[in-house]
Write a structure and sequence with these properties.
about 525 residues, 4 strands, 22 helices, two-stranded antiparallel ribbon, single chain, mainly alpha
């Protein structure tokens, strides 16, 4: 077999594994999409057909596995396949009926036979990978078929000779040979149960855990492959769009707004892209003759996601699966901007806050000196402000209330510092001035907050215009106070954008070709 044939066969096997894992997870996991304002309804309308709905669920699961490093499946009961309130009702009803059957004279084994049949299928599923049995697993599979043969068990039940405790012990021995080491304790505890009903119920619980362990194991195997190329998710997206001839009007509008925001000057001043741009096929000149490249327009479009709210725009169809992630990133940008702005205001008044009313001469400090004067306050101030603003940007947050809470904390912290230096509390006029400045930071037109947010977005823009691997860009002066929070934010946003480019690159290329040919 040639090398190319070997690679094709390997790739085919990996695609089969992806299909199998996604199908298995789709059966186990019910995916609920957030259809709040901002999501394009035309794409959601595709869910009307059952076949399209299955394709959609596969796409959603594939995307979640690739984008969310912490995505995993929670245990689902092997009887009901659910873990919600409906499961509780179904599960409790089953065990009540089961208990009623066992106390009859003679006992009835309808529920028992059903449960043992389900148990057999679950145990066999642990031995199978894409329908192929490993040689080492065949003896275990033969034992499962032999001990849990439904005809043999039904015959014993008919003759009143079905010993559920003995069957349970066989199942436990099989589970012990199949479970991950992390489940050894749970399996061992089953051996201490001496009543058939609690024993079988315990077996169901541990099997549910084992099944989740197996599913999550395969998720971990597939995740790197889904992240590297994005072709599997891309194929599912293209199939979904082609099935209904779906257009992407919100995506087109989003890219048009990004292009128009760049046209007046060609590029944002902070991007540094204007000097680096060269003529290339598919590029367009802005109002002043500057070249607009597709990657620059797309980068600006991604940045718009961090500034617009759902009231201002419809989320692009190509990002519908990331509604909650984008909202969380947008909230984090707003929260960090306010934190840095508050620190700048406090640092700007640090000299006055330290000396006014203390009898000491007023000292006029430059910007570096002001930051140095406020530096001892930084850890306490950031902790206080972060706690006050932790819900900023969320649906349940009233930003004005969070700012007011932060103001009270800042004033208390400054008074505490003055008292430690044997100075009286802040004069009323200075406290009122500082309060007004901080409260005004939440206004949309506030110049301090606007400056901080502009520099924060500029910090994100620089690596967004380059390809991995990337270096962290230089930290703008206004963001020193939030320096530790920026790398995680940048990493999360870049990972989301990179994956979206890989999956939706064809759609973006087609739309940008149209957009960049416009006058």
């Amino acid at each position: 077999m040639s090398g190319s044939e070997g690679e094709e066969r390997k790739e085919g096997k990996m695609n089969e594994l992806k299909d199998g894992v996604i199908e298995n997870e789709r059966e186990q996991e019910s995916v609920v999409m957030d259809t709040s304002a901002g999501n394009p309804s035309n794409l959601l309308d595709l869910l009307s057909a059952d076949a399209t709905k299955q394709l959609w669920e596969k796409l959603v699961l594939c995307h979640e596995i690739a984008v969310d490093e912490n995505f995993c499946l929670s245990p689902r009961n092997i009887l009901t396949g659910r873990d919600d309130m409906e499961h509780d009702v179904l599960n409790n009803t089953f065990w009540e009926i089961f208990e009623g059957e066992l106390v009859k004279e003679p006992p009835v084994y309808i529920c028992a036979l059903y449960l043992l049949d389900v148990t057999k299928k679950v145990l066999l599923s642990f031995l199978m990978t894409e329908g192929c049995h490993d040689a080492a697993s065949r003896p275990i599979a033969s034992q499962i078929h032999r001990e849990l043969d439904p005809d043999w068990l039904a015959l014993q039940a008919t003759n009143g000779a079905l010993d559920l405790l003995s069957v349970g012990k066989v199942i436990i021995m099989t589970m012990a040979s199949l479970c991950a080491p992390v489940r050894d304790k749970e399996v061992k505890e089953l051996t201490t149960i001496s009543q058939p009903l609690p024993l079988l119920r315990g077996i169901c619980g541990v099997l549910s855990l084992m099944k989740a362990d197996l599913n999550n194991f395969f998720i971990d195997i597939v995740r790197p492959h889904l992240q590297i190329d994005g072709s599997y998710e891309q194929d599912k997206l293209l199939a979904l769009l082609a099935s209904q001839n779906a257009e992407l009007p919100a995506t087109l509008a989003w890219l048009l707004v990004a292009r128009s925001s760049l046209s007046p000057s060609g590029f944002p001043e902070s991007s540094g892209a204007q000097e680096a741009a060269d003529k290339s096929p598919g590029s367009s000149k802005g109002a002043e003759g500057c070249i607009l490249r597709p990657n620059i327009v797309l980068a600006e479009a991604f940045l718009l996601l961090l500034k617009w709210s759902n009231r201002d725009m419809k989320l692009p169809e190509t990002l519908i699966l990331d509604v909650k992630r984008i909202s969380a990133l947008r909230a984090e940008v707003r929260r960090l901007s306010l934190m840095a702005a508050i620190f700048l205001v406090v640092a700007g008044d640090s000299g006055r806050c330290s000396n006014e009313g203390s009898g000491k001469p007023e000292v006029h400090l430059g910007e570096p000196e002001r930051r140095e004067s406020a530096a001892p306050l930084l850890p306490s101030l950031l902790s206080l402000v972060e706690q006050s603003l932790k819900t900023v940007g969320t649906s349940s947050c009233k930003e004005a209330e969070c700012i007011e809470k932060a103001v009270e904390g800042v004033l208390a912290l400054l008074n505490e510092r003055r008292l430690s230096q044997s100075c009286p509390a802040l004069p009323h006029t200075l406290a009122a001035s500082l309060r007004g400045q901080i409260i005004d930071l939440s206004c949309p037109t506030n110049p301090v907050t606007a400056l901080v947010e502009s520099r924060l977005l500029g910090y994100i823009r620089t690596p967004l215009l380059t390809s991995p691997p990337r270096r962290l860009p230089p930290l703008p002066p206004a963001l020193n106070s939030i320096a530790s929070a920026l790398p995680p934010l940048l990493s999360h946003f870049l990972r989301l954008c990179d994956h979206n480019r890989r999956v939706c690159g064809q759609q973006y290329a087609r739309l940008l070709t149209q957009i960049l040919t416009l006058p």
